[in-house]
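Possible regression after last week's pipeline update?

I re-ran a chain I had predicted before the update to compare outputs. Posting the input and the new output here so someone can diff against the archived version. Not blocking, just want to make sure nothing changed silently.
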Amino acid sequence: MADYRIETVRTGYRNWTARNDRGAEVRMAADDDADAQPSFTPVELLLAAMGGCGGLVVDRTARAVDHDDLRIVVESVSDPDDDGRVGRIKVSYEFDLPDNNPKAAEVFARGVRLTHEKFCTVSRTVEHGARVEAVLPDGTVGFEG
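New output (post-update):
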């Protein structure tokens, strides 16, 4: 598994831009800030990362099934008891299975299962958690959990 580095820079009040080392950028802001639109919220980016990772992996794990029209919809479901976290994430793989492949459903289901059990780093990290360390400007750790 590769390691990644993303730089997130403040571009205005409650406006941020994330950049990778290859030059890609994505804007983030609060969804209730009309002046910052179009943008993603951080939670939307997490959900997009799950959908994108799932799609990239399914392209390999289910390549025996034509899935050019696949659409992956990722939704968060939370309630007050979730204490500021996403309570549940639903990932829906939507497309019509090809009629000319009698094993298509089985092959595709295996690909999706392998995506979440073994190959999608984003989904596996969300499912199992990751250690977080917040480093302050003076180099000390301000939070670890």
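Follow-up from reviewer: compared with the archived run. Residues 69 and 95 are 6 Å apart (CA to CA). Marking as no regression found.
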